[in-house]
Design brief:
mainly alpha; 0% strand; flat
């Protein structure tokens, strides 16, 4: 990974505070929903990278 230079007119700050219980649950719920969505798409065959694409010709 390369170094990202900070633009001169913009200051980036990091908030080191710990997450609240509500924030942790919201993030966890989002991750679970995304995993379930991706798993459903994989079962449909939309996102199955291990299965070779068949090319007739």
């Amino acid at each position: 990974m390369g170094h990202i230079k900070e633009p001169l007119d913009i200051d980036f700050t990091v908030d080191p505070r710990p997450l609240t219980e509500e924030e942790q649950k919201a993030i966890s719920n989002y991750i679970q929903a995304e995993k379930a969505k991706n798993k459903a798409e994989t079962k449909k065959g939309i996102l199955n990278p291990t299965k070779p694409v068949r090319q007739d010709g």
